[in-house]
Amino acid sequence: YCRWDGDWDSLHEGGPIWLKQMRNRRRRFLKNGRRTERFTGAEAAERLDIVAGIEARSWKGQQGVARLQPGPGQDILRQAFLTLGEEIELWLAWADDQPIAFQIDFVTPERLWLYQYSYDERFANLRAGSVVGYTSIEQAWEKGVREYDFLIGDESYKASRTTALRPISYLAGHPRTLRGWLAYATLVAPRWKLRAIPELKAIFDGSKQMLRTFRAQRAEEVSTLAEA
Question: Is the overall model pTM greater than 0.85, yes or no?
Fold first, then answer.
């Protein structure tokens, strides 16, 4: 996350270098008919099909880890947009009339949580995903927010966009029985301990990536067979 008590310009001077880079990149992005738009409430809920389309064409769709496709995940998000008002927002980036990136945030007067974003891989060179993220932070700062948070996850790109880490604790619930304690001790606790070791965490994350790739390839094969 990044906490800064100064204004937008001072954040660029003393905050993450990514912000300075994005000021120029966004200026280039906004040329030739490209644009960003913000939606809340029912207007955002009505555009979740656009969100799903972008996500399907992103690496998340290609690797089988999309969360916002039609179904329970999208239904929960739609309900959030319809009930939370200005506390949840959708940003879209466009190249002409083609939607190419989205960002979904939660907003309070004090803090901006950057929840989900994806971009169409066909337009990766435009950095549209970074542009909508930067633009959402800028607007939040103009409204008085002084902290933005990328939430859980240790993806490498977050290091250049933040200035601090917030520790995350986990809580496992299980029956207070011998079977419950054994299940926790054999199935949950070892996995948490192993993931705390950097070398083993890299292996664990690599294994998950391989599994996602396999699932995506398998889904593509099934789709091809169905078409045949």
Answer: no
